[in-house]
Design brief:
single chain; alpha/beta
Length: about 110
């Protein structure tokens, strides 16, 4: 099942991403997850005390993501990647898109 594969991949990938963020940027950073889908990464980042915004085109996926957000702190927005980055370029320490880190700062 495709969702089972995504869950397995994220179970292996997310701890590595968390460790990289801690090592390179420190704790409690502002993170934008572009194309966040069902929030697999957003929700893990929020549980690690990061301030997270997830954007995606799919309202259905965002609804699933919000329901799975145990912290209830992730800000989910229905936007495309260009709108999310262009309008808010300087708000995040890390802008992440699946398989690609788009930029980071240590501010």
């Amino acid at each position: 099942h495709p969702i089972a594969l995504l869950r397995a991949e994220n179970a292996a990938r997310n701890p590595w991403i968390l460790e990289r963020i801690r090592t390179l940027l420190g704790a409690s950073r502002d993170v934008l997850d572009i194309g966040c889908g069902a929030g697999f990464l957003c929700n893990v980042l929020a549980q690690d005390s990061h301030r997270v915004t997830g954007i995606d085109l799919s309202a259905r996926s965002l609804d699933v993501a919000a329901k799975r957000d145990l912290t209830k702190t992730v800000r989910y927005m229905q936007l495309n990647a260009f709108e999310g980055r262009r309008n808010n370029q300087n708000l995040w320490n890390l802008q992440y898109c699946y398989r690609r880190c788009l930029g980071s700062t240590t501010r």
